[in-house]
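queue> holo job accepted (adenosine-5'-triphosphate)
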Amino acid sequence: MDMSSTRAQEPGPEIRVRDIELKYPTRHGMVQALAACSLTIPGGGFGCLVGPSGCGKSTLLDLVAGLVPLQSGRIEIDPGPSGTPARLAVVFQRPALFAWKTVLGNITFGLRARKLGRAEALARASHYIDLVGLGGFSGAYPHELSGGMAQRVGIARALALQPDVLLMDEPFAAVDAQTRAVLQQELRRITADARMTVLFVTHDVGEAVYLGDSVFVMSGRPGSVRRHIQPDAAQRDRSSDAFAQLTAEVFDLLAHAPSPDSSKGVLS
Ligand SMILES: Nc1ncnc2c1ncn2[C@@H]1O[C@H](COP(=O)(O)OP(=O)(O)OP(=O)(O)O)[C@@H](O)[C@H]1O
Ligand SMILES: [Mg+2]
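queue> job finished
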């Protein structure tokens, strides 16, 4: 049974972010993380967010996830396939695992909370544990895992929920290059099969161009979307000249993004 595509086969919901401004209060005054930030990811689309460190990528993802309260602007996520609120799953930059639960327990927890039967939760969790290459580690506890392994548990946990919207914050940052390539390929396949809507944050321009049907290039802080690029099939083929050309173009854009410094954006 291919459990990776059991989500309803209608495209996931569209995500619209409009004119977001966000300031964090700090000891040194207000830090403006985002300014006039807008983007749209169509239903079933794969949107990648690239930008310099500190430009507000995680803040934007947390806003879409509803984890940070909106200050101004709008975020709209269309309803899920059955008209109910869209089901979201988040993979955090630092995987937040339950330290007292095993790998398997971490993944079945959310499934049981969604009223999945015990046998089905176990089967589904095992499927995704295998998928991220942790087959032998179901019984391990988070402190027994490397950073990259813990990150993969976070990925398996999110995928196992078979959400309508998948929000991922640098999910492969701590994963070794070889595993990363496998996971990128799997992620592209799973999300396309299930027609999930994805918002994926990364530093890695090549990863963004390979994965994203939309690539949003952000400016330095306060972050906003400077360019929206929609790579075509040839540009997403890593072995093509078109891929090399497009990634070079995005690098160039990033090189000219003003880099966030300690004073810029601090409003005192
Ligand atoms: N909870 C917070 N309190 C105060 N300032 C914050 C908070 N979270 C983020 N910031 C500030 O907001 C800005 C944007 O942070 P954010 O984490 O969104 O950036 P990022 O683009 O995800 O960076 P990275 O690529 O390094 O993960 C940074 O200047 C950061 O210092
Ligand atoms: Mg971040």
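queue> The beta strands are 15-26, 29-41, 46-50, 72-77, 88-91, 165-169, 197-202, 214-218, 225-229, 266-267.
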